[in-house]
Amino acid sequence: MKQILIAEDQEQERRRLVGYLHAYALERGQEITCMDYPDGSDLLEEYHGGADLILLDIDMVFLDGIETARRIRSFDEQVQIVFITRVVSHALEGYEVQAADYLVKPVSYELFCTKMDRIFRKMEHDQDEMITARTGSGQRFVRIHEIVFAETSGRRVILHLPESRRAGVKLQDSDGHLPGQFVETSMPLYQLEKQLEGKSFFRCHSAFLINLRCVTGYTQTDVLLGEIRVPLSKHRRKAFMEALTLYHTNRM
Predict the structure, then answer these.
(1) pTM score > 0.85 for this model?
(2) Of the candidates 120, 149, 202, 252, which lies 20 to 30 Å from 215 by C-alpha distance?
């Protein structure tokens, strides 16, 4: 069962999207629950994490879609977000909040189905794809999409994961502590990088490998993963920006 939320301030458009979702689910044999809201602020009053997909109108009266998405990302890094807009250029802001896609109004049912097919396939693929990490006690299976970043620590590599894929917690608390899970492996970072080749990961520093899906911004010296700062080597800065641009271009 997939949980899908919609925030759209125009009632006619909101009803249209709800109808599209139910028709799509019936045609594709998908089981869904759907909740809809007239504004981003209404959605945030009730949402605390755990949804599979959120459709956000960018232009809403009280809290627009971009700001709603920013607030969602402060506690939920995993949910798929799709923006709905009349102006394509607005959707390009989506990389900051790791948007999965966008829909341009008026939204046709055929295009809606095409976008949903792609996103649902990605959900299923991401949830199934794993790597095997050697640990001191044996082997640990780790879902690739759950790896936020990896870092070398002495002779070992630490994989940083969220607290839970559906937990909806911040990656870093106000005291700078990381509440997420850790997996320590004896696999060298270069070997992990090779395993994750083509999986949207980038070596931003000799000691750090990041998941581009989790990038929320960057500075001259750091990559931002939510509230976590990971060092960005000046020698890799240009390649990082190119990789990030390509990643988001391929998602749109």
Answers:
(1) no
(2) 120
Find out if CATH 3.40.50.2300 is the number for domain 2-127. yes
Domain chopping of the chain, boundaries: 2-127, 130-251
Please indicate whether the domains covering 2-127 and 130-251 agree at the CATH topology level.
no
DSSP string, 25-49: HHHHT--EEEEEESSHHHHHHH--S
Q: What is the mean pLDDT of each run of 10 residues along the chain (252 residues)?
A: 92 95 94 94 91 92 90 85 80 70 91 93 73 78 86 91 45 40 87 89 96 90 90 95 84 56
Task: List beta partners, residue 53.
Answer: 4, 80
Mark 211-226 as b/e (b = at least 16 C-beta within 10 Å): bbbbbbebeeeebbbb
